[in-house]
Amino acid sequence: MASGPRYSVKYRRRREGKTNYRSRLALVKSRKPRMVVRKTSTNIIVQFVTFAPEGDKVLGTALSRELRDLGWNYSTKSTPAAYLTGYLASKRVAGKVTEAVLDLGLAGPKKGSKVFAAMKGALDGGIKIPHGKDILPSEDRIKGKHIELYRQQPIVQEFTNMKAVIDKLKAGKIDKAPRPKGAKPAPRPVAPAPKPVAPAPKPVAQPPKPLPPPPPRPVAPAPKPVAQPPKPAPPPPKPVEKPVEKKPALDDMDALLAELTGKKTTPPPPKPAAPEPKAAEAPKTPPVSELLSKKKKEDEKKEP
Questions:
Q1: What is the pTM of this model?
Q2: Exposed / middle / buried, residue 241 (Cβ in 10 Å: 0-12, 13-18, 19+)
Q3: Domain boundaries, the chain
């Protein structure tokens, strides 16, 4: 369980899933009595309850099983039984309650359900309850026509008779539905006992059959030789390179021709040697005395 300064333990009935305190608070704020409708596996309970600080006060209660004391011979958890139970509860609180609100509890507001059939009985009994007309079951379903078609029994007629019996009861003074004089509660319908089934004949014991000899063990086949991968082929031999014959020089051509032809050839005369280049002569420079006399003459010509 969670713990901490801000954690608060929920109410016990909230933890057990029995009370929705948020919807209960909204109903209590209306300041009107609550019509509490609850369903069980075999019964329908209708109560009119008011709030008090010390605890809720029950103004009137009706149970669907009380209908058997009035001569009801059908199911006490059907839609007609729910209507008659709400009608009986409204007669018991006549003069005490004139207006109420419906308390569904944890049941969902399903259209045409038995909870709204009980509310319809209280409405017909003279109690004002806020509701929508589309949520109520149809008249044929309240009277049990769908059950009559299925079971082929006059449940609609008995429903009308039961409603007339409840109308004859003294309003506001019904602690328990009276039983007619000399009448016993109708026994609940019992399902017919199943037909006895003939027991199956016992099988005749037969001697056990001899077990067949075990099959011979299969001989394991000889292991297949493992295929070895083929050896790689040797690489092809490299071609032998022939030595390249060197071509003879042009000077040896005559000797080579002589060897091939068997003729001797005279060697050509040697070429004359080229003359040596003459050394370039250095330019002759005039003497300094000639230059000075020449310049002196030029200066004299320039003077006027």
A1: 0.57
A2: exposed
A3: 18-168
Exposed/middle/buried for residue 5 (C-beta within 10 Å: 0-12, 13-18, 19+):
exposed
121-130, 136-145, 231-240: least confidently modelled range? 231-240
Residue 120's Cβ-count burial label (10 Å; 0-12, 13-18, 19+) is buried
Comparing 30-39, 153-162, 214-223, which segment has the lowest mean pLDDT? 214-223
Q: Which residues of 83-99 are buried (b: 16+ CB within 10 A; e: fewer)?
A: bbbbbbbbbbbbeebee
Cβ(100)–Cβ(33) below 8 Å: yes
Between CA 113 and CA 127 the distance in angstroms is: 19
> What was the pLDDT predicted at 62?
95
pLDDT, one tens digit per residue, over 175-190 is 565 555 555 555 555 5
SS3 content of the chain, % helix, strand, coil (to 5): 35, 10, 60
Q: What's the rounded Cα separation, in Å, for the pair 37 and 39?
A: 7
Tokens of 280: 């370039």
CATH class of 18-168: alpha beta
